[in-house]
Amino acid sequence: MSSAPATDPPPLRLPSSPYPGLRPFLDHEEMLMYGRQAQVEDVVQRLGRPVHADPHDAAAGAAPLATRFVAVLGGSGSGKSSLIRAGVVPYLRQFGIPAAGDLWETVVATPGTNFQPDADGMVRESPITRLARKFERVLRGEHRQERCEAIEQTLRRPGGLGQMVELFGPELNLPEGVPAEKACLLLVIDQFEELFHKTNVDQPDARQLIERVIDHYHQARNGLGCDRCYLAITMRSEHLNDCAGYLGLPEAINAGSYLVSRLDAPQVREVIEKPAQRYLRLRQRERQALARQDPPVDLSMLPPLPRAVAFEPTLVDRLVQDTGKLANNPDHLPLLQHVLSRMWDSALDRLNLKASDVPDTITLPDLWRAAQAGDDTPLPPEQNVLTLSLDSWAEKLLASHPPEQRKPLLDLFRRLVYKDPRTGTYNQQRLYVASHPLGTAGVRALVEGRWIESVDYLYWDAEDPERVTLKVSHESFIRGWKTLRELADNEAVRLENFMALLEATRTWVDKGRRDSDVMDERMLGRMRDMTIEEAIGPRDAAHDKDPETFTWHEWHGWLGQLPQGQALTEVPRADVRRFFRRSNEVLERRIARGRNNARAISALSAVVLVFLLGTAFSLLVQQPVIDRAELYFQAADKANKASLRNAYDQIGGSQIELEALVDAAGKLELARSPEGKRYTVSNAVLHGSWSPLKGLRLANLLPDAARAIEPPVNGKLRALLTRSVWRTGSASTSVA
Predict the structure, then answer these.
(1) Between 20 and 30 A from 332 (CA), which of 223, 312, 466, 640?
(2) Is 28 exposed, middle or buried (0-12, 13-18, 19+ CB in 10 A)?
(3) What is the mean pLDDT of each run of 10 residues along the chain (736 residues)?
């Protein structure tokens, strides 16, 4: 019997950093994932847990059957994907399920969203084709389209997951001599909630894949299907309600669910310190392998590796405390991994080391630089380093782009995120880069070197070279970066305004397209502010046959998801464009009429203003002067009529003249010092140092009158008092 030829062991795939940043841990990074061992064992136990298909079977003593299914649930950022990829998968290969053995192959696929048509207008990608392509990659030989299509057809049949393993399992690309037909296959549908995405609602293959999950669970619990096919899904817990719309899916979720729990303080310390030590051991093993290869590498030419990586205790304490403060924040784990990754890079920069080297110490200033994008100013306890780090680095990266790149970059980010109007949650969505105005090369040039390296803010998915997509690596990036969050908020407002436009268009059409029913200036302003023409196309287009815009297609996809939007799906884009165009025309006519009316009103206002000014001058300035002048003239008239004699021969003989002169003196005093606000205003206007009217002839009228009239009035009164003989009553005195 001949033995199988010896083969070289596969090269050791080393992690590039002890901390993955925002992306999940991958299967080759399982040695770096700490604090999750108990959870890994629990998930595997559920995956292989035997259950009775019927309570009567248990009573009869029948052997229970394994469902070979687990649903890992949790909020965004709880570590679901990392738990499966870097925890469950390696554990299964260590006889995690004893009856299944240690020969396992794994296929991890995401359903995908926003599928775009090919050049011929046909949409060929779907959740089924993505899973088929992933599975076909683990088979022997080069990629063959006909084999991939055969897998797709298998998946569309009832029980398709198990049939796929039965039919194509023998072709698994395993080492020579290893019986592929005995290998178990773990199928992982990561981000299962993508099947409920707005762009998958009417997607037949999305429903088909959900049906295959239901098939798998119910067949397994009844002892049917392929016993080498195991299925795990990861799903955000807020989408549990979406599962209720599919008969049989809630039963599967209830039976196989595992809710990921958060880490306690000791586990957080492990997450901080232990990956660095394990990463150091891996690099040491790499050095040993380099020394043994032919020809060997001279290790003295490489920077020495430390014996251990030392963390300053205050640094670890600060990270544990700040992580604890975010215990109710679903993003605390990815935010922690982000700041750890930046902190590691900061330590390497401080020591002038390369990315593949290992620092001997991690210091508190390294943490400050990680939190503040290079600034090592100490931070007060109330400032959380986890949340600050993500926002600071994202803003720094944005500012590092030339000014002419920032607007297209923000527009690109806007297409990668959305705010669900039903739940208010922030979500990611895939962008087919070929559909972007910049094209594949332009998008790659925009994000390469900043956003898809290091901590992986974005994920460039080139698995299918013909359908390259770009997505946010983790939704914590959306929630943690204020600028990106505001882009999603603004887009949500634009969607609301879009729905208002559709509703207004429908009303306008139903009422006979009357000008009285077009948009008013305020609503038109909102539409212009949201650049509605980006969705409906230019309003001055000569026809309405141009292709739908990306934004129209994107917004229209939401309408069927929203109760208030379902009735608006039938509003034609041509009607919307005509309504918008007509609203602008009517408004422009109103503005033109308003300008003409404004000119007429301005002319009339000038006339009225002159009249009002003249009236005000007459009432407030001129009339008080006339009234005072009249008093002067009355005083003069009375004084002139009083004829004085040289002597009066009897007491009281001058009584008539005296009364006339006293009355004249009273009028003179009143004219000189009048009481009342209108006299004060008149005096201020005519005699104030600031007044431009102080030189008018009117201003000199009263002083001239006073100078002419006061001497005769007062002179006659003094003369009379010296010449008369007075008769007094009991209350009077005699004056000689």
Answers:
(1) 312
(2) middle
(3) 41 80 84 88 87 49 71 88 90 90 93 79 86 93 90 95 94 89 93 89 92 94 90 92 92 92 91 95 90 86 91 97 90 93 96 93 97 95 96 95 94 89 83 88 91 84 86 92 93 88 92 91 83 74 64 76 78 87 86 73 66 62 73 76 66 74 79 65 60 58 71 74 54 36
Closest CA to 712 of 633, 626, 628: 633
C-beta separation of 163 from 157 below 8 A = yes
Q: Using CA atoms, how far apart are residues 586 and 567, in angstroms rounded to an integer?
A: 27
H/E segment holding residue 258 = strand 257-259
With a CB cutoff of 8 Å and minimum separation 6, the contacts of 54 are: none
173, 7 Cβ separation under 8 angstroms: no
Chain Cα centroid distance, residue 340: 25
Query: What is the sign of the dihedral through the CA atoms of 14, 19, 22 and 27?
Result: positive
Cβ neighbour number for residue 716 with a 10 Å cutoff? 21
Got the DSSP string for 447-506?
HTTTTSSTT-SEEEE-SSTTS-EEEES-THHHHH-HHHHHHHHHHHHHHHHHHHHHHHHH
Dihedral of CA atoms 344, 347, 348, 349 in degrees, nearest 10, equals 120
The helix/strand/coil state of 231 is strand
Q: Give CA 339 to chain center in angstroms.
A: 21
Strands 426-428, 417-419: pairing kind: antiparallel
CA-CA distance, 267 to 264, in Å (whole number)?
5
Characterize the bridge pairing of strands 469-472 and 431-432. antiparallel
Residue 501, Cβ density class (10 Å: 0-12 exposed, 13-18 middle, ≥19 buried): buried
Please write the tens of the pLDDT for every residue from 362-378.
999 999 999 999 999 99
Question: Structure pTM?
Answer: 0.72
Distances (CA, A) of 106 to 84, 129, 166: 10, 17, 15
Give pLDDT tens digits for 665-677: 887 777 777 765 5
- Do the bridges between strand 361-362 and strand 469-472 make them parallel or antiparallel, or are there none, so unpaired? unpaired
Q: How far apart are CA 517 and CA 522, in angstroms?
A: 14
CB 191 within 8 A of CB 111: yes
105 pairs with which residues across the strands?
Answer: 185
Q: Quick one: 692 exposed, middle or buried, by C-beta within 10 A (0-12, 13-18, 19+)?
A: exposed
206 with 127: CB under 8 angstroms? yes
Amino acid identity, residue 634?
Answer: Q
Q: Token pair of 682, please?
A: 């008149």
Token readout for 154 is 């298998």
- Tokens representing 567 are 């009735």
Q: What token pair was written down for 92?
A: 């299964």
Residue 234: name the closest of 89, 121, 374, 82 by CA: 82
Phi and psi at 241, nearest 5°, equal -65, -30
pLDDT tens for each residue of 577-597: 889 888 888 888 888 876 776
| Neighbouring C-beta atoms of residue 21, cutoff 10 Å | 22
User: How many whole angstroms separate alpha carbon 688 and alpha carbon 699?
Assistant: 10
CA angle 70, 93, 225 (to 5 degrees): 45
Question: CA-to-CA distance for 349 and 346, rounded, in angstroms?
Answer: 5
134 close to 185: Cβ distance less than 8 angstroms: no
Tokens (6 digits) for 734: 């005699």
C-alpha distances (whole Å) from 1 to each of 4, 6, 177 are 10, 15, 13
Question: Per residue in 404-439, is it b (16+ CB within 10 Å) or e — as a string?
Answer: eeeebbeebbbbbbbbbeeeebbbbbbbbbbbbeee
| Residue 284 amino acid letter | Q
Amino acid identity of residue 203, one-letter, is Q
The string of DSSP letters for 11-45 reads PP---SSSS-TTSPPPGGGGGG--S-HHHHHHHHH
Q: Which of 198, 621, 647 is nearest to 429 (CA)?
A: 198
